[in-house]
Amino acid sequence: MVSIKDVAKEAGVAISTVSKVLNNYPNVSDDTRQKVMEVVERLGFVPNAVAATLSSKNSGRIALLIKLNVETQAIDEIDMQYIAGAISKAQELQLDVITIFFSMIESMSLEEMIRYFASQSVRGIIIYGMSSKDKVLHSLVDSQMFKTVVIDAPQVSTSCSCVGIDHAKAQYDVAKKTIKENNCKKVLYISGKKNGYVTDKRLQGMKKLQEEMGLKVLIRDGDFSELKARQITMRYARNKDVVVCASDLMAIGAMKALIEMDIFRPVCGFDGIILMGYVGKQMNTVRQDFASVSSKAVEEMERLLSGESGRSVVLPHELVRMKYEEIIR
Questions:
Q1: What does the radius of gyration of the chain's CA atoms come to, in whole angstroms?
Q2: The whole model's pTM is what?
Q3: Which of 27, 77, 180, 257 could be disulfide-bonded to 233 (CB atoms 3.0-4.6 Å)?
Q4: Residue 285, CA distances (Å) to 28, 38, 56, 251, 260 in order
């Protein structure tokens, strides 16, 4: 079966150019358009679902592509907030939304992925949790076959926007507040997952603070795991002044470990999940409004679908101490 990739190769153009020709985009030269259509006819390429879906200007279906955290038994509150925020805004904007979990498509090639989304009548995709090692997802974004909005990933093009907070500044802010409040110098920093964009940004913020304040910082990878943060804390925290964690779940693991060790060390987290309200108001954290982030991503998708170019949208964050009274209903 002839694929759109075959057409692009034969015509000597990018896949995105073939897509634009098939969808009658105006910013394609007549010579390129003619060359592509000659190859389409010669190879017998049938665009079927891909072209039919993407050329339908009346279709507003967007897919929420979510990577579930299957390595923890804790309820993934963040994903639920993302979904709720997106659905609410999509209803307001009269956009059709479907939710697709990454595990459903992770074994697909780029071509298979394109056909899968096209078969679902998708015109735009909002991607949550993309890392630097997700090569096929990067290729999907680069193909420009669909409008895309990525959450917390540095991808911007004519058809792709990114939405999120300034993770480097947020990590800097919460760590500085905790360290100054407790007059600390020796820091145990429990980082997130390797290859994660938010992990890298938060680490940048921590390193900036280390340099500015002359801190001694021991960095260990916690993989956003409560269990691993607990193990790291038990091994290293006794000789440190403070434990800075790149997620609330890891902060909970660290705090529980310190209690069992019968020592006090200040701990701060990152995210502002509801669980923090149940473990004590002594921990600083960064509150992200995940529902608002997702809502903004849907607004950004509407911009892209209307023909606007992609951009980077940075949303505010807030430093808080989560209280039980604030989370009960």
A1: 23
A2: 0.80
A3: 257
A4: 49, 58, 45, 9, 22
